[in-house]
Model the fold of this input.
Amino acid sequence: MTLDQLRQDDHATVVAVDSRGGDRRRLMDLGLLPGTKIRVHMKSPLGDPTAYLVRGSVVALRRSQARHIRIEAHDAQEPT
Amino acid sequence: MTSAEILDHAARLRADLPSDFQDSVIESIYTDAARITSTSISHDTERARLTVDRVLDKVLTHPVGGFAAMGLLFFAVFWFTITGAAVPSGLLYTLLVDNGHAWLRDAFVAFGSPAWLTGLLIDGTYLGMAWVVAVMLPPMAIFFPIFTLLEDFGYLPRVAFNLDRLFARAGAHGKQSLSMMMGYGCNAAGVVATRIIDSPRERLIAILTNNFSICNGRWPTLILMGTIFIGAQAPPALASLVAAASVVTVALIGVLTALIVSWGLSKTVLRGETSVYSLELPPYRPPQLWRTLYTSIIDRTLVVLRRAVVMAAPAGAVIWLISNIDLGGTSIAAHMTNGLDPLGWVLGLNGVILLAYIVAIPANEIIIPTILMLTMTLGPNLFDAQNGVMLELGQTQTHAVLTQAGGWTLLTAINLMLFSLLHNPCSTTILTIRNETNSLKWTTVAALMPLALAFAVTAATATAARLAGGG
Amino acid sequence: MTSSAELPQAPAHGACASCAVYNAANLKKLGIKPGNYDYVVAVAGNPNTGKSTVFNALTGLRQHVGNWPGKTVSRAEGGFRYHDHGYKLVDLPGTYSLLSTSNDEDIARDFLLFGQPDVTVVVADATRLERNLNLVLQVLEITERVVVALNLMDEAERHGIDIDVRHLARELGVPVVPMAARKGDGIPALLEAIEQVAQDGATAKRHRVAQRHPRIERAVRDLARQLERAFPGLPNTRWIALRLLEGDPGTERAVRDGTLSDLSRAWSARKTAPTNLAGTLE
Done:
């Protein structure tokens, strides 16, 4: 599953970041690494981008970026 | 070990490193950061996001509410700027232009200053400066502080978030929406604001298209044209509404142009994938109202005053000189106007307008007074205008001057609006672009591309109007 | 590895023993105007942490400050006097990291590495501590003369985040000053911490990031040891080793063109006690 498929209120853990180049570095700088817990904070009213909660800050990613981030989703109830 | 040996040694070690070396390095840092954070913080950050913040985010990024709030806020900002600026602008105008100019002129004459000196210094230089201060200071001192408050509050990143998709389609960054909005105050400020865009390609697109946001210096031209030429076409009850609608239409054409040009650039000379995209949405913070207002107003006042001295003063002097130096019995201004008339005709404008745009490159805000002065001193002088002395008239008088002395039609007015929207940025903005891009090539593109577009569009509308039998 | 257990210096009066004059040439190369100051203080931090507010509070400047990432792109400079010493303050661009290759990060990294500031203040956002510690830990790899300005404590409180500042300081091995810079809270404590680090250097053992991958850790140690032999006195051989292992062209150039030798000499000269200098030679 990739990050763009994550639904509102679902929790997930990043499995791998498949983006390349500067984008990959930036994502890593922002703390998006394998093992990082991530959650949808809100979607843009036009459908893209989506804002995610990562390590206590809110970062918006475009779908084209989120597609390259593989995740494993958990139930909403599961504590993170 | 020598330097070369160290580098060799590093290269040998590198060959042995795991392929995910870079990831692993960052992971190691974040692992420590996470551990230290969890042992230092006694609260779940995620759960601690305030309900107020969550509700605000829900509303401000809601598909309906979000856009409604955005529209309302920006309408309020512009309304507040325009109406709030009217009174202080009027006061400054009376003080500096009406009384100040007359007083200084009298003083110069009383001290026996020769006419040419009084003309150059008082009618040219001083009036140019006074004009810019009166027209620009109040709106700038209102617009930017409000903007700064919205920025401090954390709202602006949400606007970029809401509009990002629109800009993504045009190959640009959502944050461009913000540099564009800054541009409505001042394009030079808008160009500087593109610094918030961290990918070079998208930033350049934002710089090159900022000109299509109508700056404070250009609003008066649009409002005047909209009122005396377009609003006047409608029945009196609807006149002000139609006038306002025409100005808004021009502004929207500007937004559309910015998006289309962005798209065009991103498909041609600035082709490429979005290099680095990140948009962080910071927590909302209560703004520091008084401090922000204070520093922001001081900032803007200094900017405008500097502009008045550095840009408008020389422009005022040049305008006076070309109107008062005669070559073979006619003023330089008349020679230039005659030379520019054919091109002006093709563009649905006239030589006076083009000359005004040439001498007013440093300060767009003196376009209208310059046009009025030139029209009257070069044509039948209806209201006793003096060579090289910029002046302002009431709306009916302006309309009379432009149609009777200048031969203006509805086409001239519409094309002046379009030209004002599209033409090259003012010299301050061009210099700012030079500083920000550090590239002569992109500065040239930023200056000439809009000018070419302005020529093309006005020529097209003029031709179309003439073919349709108007104009 | 550099010994961080420095002896406290004799209180510096008049001619200041650990002052920035040793590095005047390099600072000039980095565009810093020479002037009448005793210490150089760099201000680093994530975008949007109130870095410019801290900078303005210290210098009394009115640089525009906004709740928006990436305001300062070029470097701003200012200065202040505190207890008879002049401090030159350099505001570095806001960055998330020092490992990537954006222009901002190059400016910030080069300044920390080659400008050898006497103190580096890292402004961190208390409401987003983890992300901010990422940068703090990277800066600590480059220099031990660090003060963490833990800003936006009022906001953290509003969000129900409770931070054990003393624990954090112990973990990082450098002073941590809780602040609410917009209200002026914490500025006196920050000044005191800056003065202490400027005059005494680091007093505790700073946090170092160990590489989790054993092969990387081995390579870093190996290369850092060679670097220490070649360039004694450098406080950041592990960081330079990492950059060289990554093949960073800028760092390779610094090795080749003698920049690192100059830095090594400058750092060695800064250490006042000869025993201490010997300690850095292994």
